[in-house]
């Protein structure tokens, strides 16, 4: 929409398809977030339209999502008992989520998302799926609980549930909704099955004469459904509320950005990442003014843009705009939606988030990958949602730093002609150790302890090859000095060859004298890969 043009037939088709599928999702994800369902429509309409205008990709749609919904639920729970404060906290969270995205763009910090391991993302989505399913069990059984906002509370209440209070009529409806989605995905993937399930249940509530229908609990009985635009926040947040929501606001932006990255990767549109982050930041700030909770990229609805044939940003704009008359004039229909249908649709969403094959492959992987996955899943179930994802991402970063702080060490024997020989012992007491990798402070400090066991007892001369070492710092100079002093005490002559020029400058600046040598490792191919220590005509840098 940068240069104005009318929407194509593909844009119209994709826009209406996403809107139809999005109606039940928006209502369900708002309730998942602990908010009245009409706010889900507001979040899809205003941030959705603004992100469509300000963004670049024709295949990204913005609105409520299931994963960020759980963060919103837990972060807003302290104010759940006071509707006015709840709305204020919701708006504050939207502002902080928008500012977090804009801060990432301003600092050019998009690369931080590359450090989140796939095991953490899989663990997060698996834990989220379990929570979503468990949190719907009371509505699924026809016995909705009041005041439950965590999975622990839900499980406690379920253990206290009297089986005589179960409502078979609601269970039958929830199972029907669940099966319709599962079977629809398999046999009618292009049909808006969740919407058809909603429409059918509304028709039954409004017109069916059967006594069974009267036993269904509808949204009108369980939450506030306003006519027209829902109520806006009337109070400003205090500093304590802002402080409490800073981390959840960043977590919402973090998770939403990961969903955006996945969507762009699927379309080979990673070049639009900064523009889309910026547009979603602006969209959340604008949405906070009109009653929207934090909006993010919807993976499922974004895929439908592609399936529908979207060719421009008109498609996500139309998908958002079509919901406006439903928000303004559809309150009576939304009031008639049975809670059991929403529960069935959310359980279907949870099942779609589980990836059994990926989970099995991660569990068969190495210990670190397994640990990351299990820790993320476990923390998702017992901690606040934003704490769990940040813990998993932080643990992944720590493991990465630990692995990158271990330079690779390889020892060779050196024969009388200078050839490197891959064998345990040298006939002349000359050995070479190649040091490959980073030599910044964390990596260099442990170098003497790791290198010492590699030096044989019969060593008389040791050549340290730094051709493949990089990022030397002061700590590298100090580590090499310790190695030389240790070898000197053992009567071993040390040479340091292939050193980076920066390393020698640092040593000269510190006044540290190290045994630099004018040898280099020469690679030769004569039927097999071989390497040799040869003299160089270059002067030490």
- Coarse morphology: elongated
**What amount of the residues lies in strands?**
5-15%
Count of alpha and pi helical runs: 25
Number of strands: 10
How far from one another are the termini? 56 Å
How would you name the oligomeric state of the polypeptide chains in this document?
single chain
Mean pLDDT, nearest integer? Answer: 88
Report the biggest beta sheet as strand number plus sense, adding barrel if it closes.
6 strands, mixed
Low-confidence stretches: 523-529, 537-541
Give the helix level as a range of percent.
55-70%
Which class of secondary structure composition applies to the elements?
A: alpha/beta
| Rounded Rg | 31 Å
Structural overview:
The chain is of the alpha/beta class and 541 residues long. It has 25 helices and 10 strands. Helix 8 packs across helix 18. The chain starts with 8 loop residues before the first helix and ends in a 6-residue tail after the last strand.
In short:
The protein has 25 helices and ten strands. The chain is α/β, with parallel strands linked by helices and 541 residues long.
């Amino acid at each position: 929409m940068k240069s104005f043009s009318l929407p194509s037939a593909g844009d119209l088709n994709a826009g209406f398809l996403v809107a139809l599928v999005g109606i039940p999702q928006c209502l369900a994800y708002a309730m998942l977030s602990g908010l009245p369902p009409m706010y889900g429509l507001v979040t899809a309409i205003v941030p959705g339209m603004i992100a469509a205008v300000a963004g670049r990709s024709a295949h990204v749609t913005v609105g409520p999502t299931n994963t960020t919904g759980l963060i919103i639920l837990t972060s807003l729970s302290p104010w759940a008992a006071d509707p006015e404060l709840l709305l204020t906290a919701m708006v504050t969270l939207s502002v902080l989520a928008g500012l977090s995205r804009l801060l990432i763009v301003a600092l050019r910090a998009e690369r931080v998302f590359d450090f989140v391991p796939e095991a953490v993302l899989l663990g997060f989505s698996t834990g989220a799926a379990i929570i979503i399913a468990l949190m719907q069990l009371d509505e699924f059984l026809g016995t909705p609980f009041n005041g439950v906002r965590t999975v622990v509370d839900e499980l406690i209440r379920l253990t206290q549930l009297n089986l005589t209070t179960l409502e078979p009529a609601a269970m039958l409806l929830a199972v029907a909704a669940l099966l319709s989605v599962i079977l629809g995905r398999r046999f009618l993937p292009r049909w808006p099955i969740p919407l058809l399930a909603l429409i059918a249940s509304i028709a039954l509530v409004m017109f069916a004469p059967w006594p069974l229908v009267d036993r269904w609990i509808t949204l009108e009985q369980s939450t506030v459904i306003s006519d027209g635009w829902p109520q806006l926040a009337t109070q400003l947040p205090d500093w304590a509320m802002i402080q409490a929501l800073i981390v959840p606001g960043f977590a919402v932006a973090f998770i939403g950005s990961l969903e955006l990255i996945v969507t762009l990767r699927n379309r080979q549109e990673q070049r639009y990442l900064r523009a889309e982050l910026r547009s979603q930041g602006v969209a959340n700030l604008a949405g906070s003014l009109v009653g929207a909770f934090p909006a993010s990229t919807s993976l499922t609805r974004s895929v439908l843009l592609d399936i529908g044939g979207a060719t421009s940003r008109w498609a996500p704009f139309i998908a958002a705009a079509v919901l406006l008359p439903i928000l303004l004039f559809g309150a009576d229909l939304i009031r008639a939606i049975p809670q059991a249908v929403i529960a069935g649709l959310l359980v279907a969403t949870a099942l779609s988030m589980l990836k059994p094959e990926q989970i099995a492959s991660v569990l068969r992987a190495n210990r670190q990958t397994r640990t990351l996955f299990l820790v993320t899943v476990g923390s998702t179930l017992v901690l606040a949602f934003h704490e769990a994802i940040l813990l998993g991402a932080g643990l992944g970063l720590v493991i990465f730093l630990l692995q990158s702080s271990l330079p690779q060490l390889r020892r060779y024997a050196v024969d009388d002609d200078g050839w490197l020989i891959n064998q345990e012992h040298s006939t002349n007491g000359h050995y070479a150790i190649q040091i490959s990798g980073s030599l910044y402070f964390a990596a260099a400090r442990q170098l003497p302890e790791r290198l010492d066991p590699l030096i044989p007892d019969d060593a008389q001369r040791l050549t340290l090859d730094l051709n493949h070492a990089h990022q030397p710092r002061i700590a590298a100079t100090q580590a090499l000095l310790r190695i030389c002093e240790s070898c000197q005490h053992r009567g071993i002559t040390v040479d340091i060859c292939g050193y980076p020029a920066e390393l020698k400058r640092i040593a000269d600046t510190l006044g540290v004298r190290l045994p630099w040598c004018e040898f280099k490792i020469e690679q030769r191919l004569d039927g097999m890969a071989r390497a040799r220590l040869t003299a160089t005509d270059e002067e030490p840098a």
